[in-house]
Design brief:
Blueprint (H helix, E strand, L loop, with lengths): L1 H18 L1 E10 L9 E4 L5 E3 L5 E7 L3 E5 L6 E4 L5 E6 L21 E2 L6 E5 H6 L5 H8 L3 E3 L14 E3 L7 E5 L2 E2 L29 E7 L4 H4 L6 E7 L12
Parallel strand pairs: 1-7, 12-15
Antiparallel strand pairs: 1-4, 2-3, 2-5, 5-6, 8-9, 9-14, 10-11, 12-13, 14-15
Length: 253
């Protein structure tokens, strides 16, 4: 009679020992034996999981009867029963489906500003964008809108206190050609002699053109000396004025 009573007790004890929580450690490797850092190790049917470290090692507390799911980018997901084991080394097979090329493009504006269909990059700044910058000087608008354009206000530097020297792609003001409606804009008569941008050169005063009269600004961010001459080595700035000259617009900042 005692034998019949002890047999069920041993069976229950064995099941309890098999279902107890154990800590499973091991490594996640590729088929060639390389460590897979960042691989996911998850107890199937639960949210209990972890990720492999830089050496592909992991440690996870699970019941002895649990099943672990191993997954990694570019590899086939694999399920392995624990069966009471405390050490598991898993080799993942490469996935038959290769990932395609991922191209990430960054832009400063929600709508593309540069015309990439031309032989040289051209930034087009619309009248709406000009108004959004809340600047009255064209040079300051271009400083905010065009990454290749630079203009800084000077103080106690001869005539540049009133005429801001501008540069395109880091070159001098006399190497930036300014056009208004496709025609050359005259250069200023001031020679920058102090320690300012473009020392010893003569540039064009962009701030004499009211921003309210501008339809759009086109900035050619490449040398165009072959087409326009040596004063277009740094690039070309073409300012298109509004077509309607019968209206008067007033804006406040």
């Amino acid at each position: 009679m005692r034998k019949f009573l002890l047999t069920p007790l041993f069976a229950v004890a064995a099941l309890a020992a098999h279902a107890q929580t154990i800590t499973v450690t091991g490594r996640v490797l590729s088929a060639s034996g390389e460590a897979q850092p960042g691989a996911t190790v998850l107890q199937s049917g639960t949210t209990n999981g972890t990720t492999a470290d830089a050496d592909g090692r992991f440690s996870l507390a699970v019941p002895g009867t649990a099943t672990l799911t191993f997954s990694a980018i570019g590899y086939t997901t694999q399920q392995v029963p624990v069966n009471g084991r405390r050490t598991l080394d898993v080799r993942l097979a490469a996935s038959a489906t290769d990932l395609g090329d991922v191209v990430v493009t960054g832009s400063r504006a929600a709508v593309g500003r540069s015309n990439v269909l031309t032989t040289a990059p051209v930034d087009v700044i619309s009248a709406r964008e000009i108004k959004a910058f809340a600047q009255t000087d064209v040079s300051q608008v271009l400083t905010y809108a065009a990454p290749s354009f630079q203009s800084s206000r000077q103080s106690i530097s001869d005539g540049t206190d009133f005429l801001d020297p501008a540069s395109l792609r880091g070159l001098g003001p006399d190497q930036v050609l300014v056009l208004v409606n496709g025609k050359r804009r005259y250069s200023q008569s001031l020679v920058n002699i102090n320690g300012t941008i473009g020392r010893g050169s003569v540039g064009t005063d962009l701030n004499t053109i009211p921003t309210a009269s501008i339809k759009r600004i086109e900035v050619l961010r490449d040398g165009a000396a072959a087409l326009y001459g040596s004063d277009a080595i740094a690039g070309v700035i073409n300012i298109q004025l509004k077509d309607d000259t019968t209206r008067t617009s007033i804006s406040s900042l």
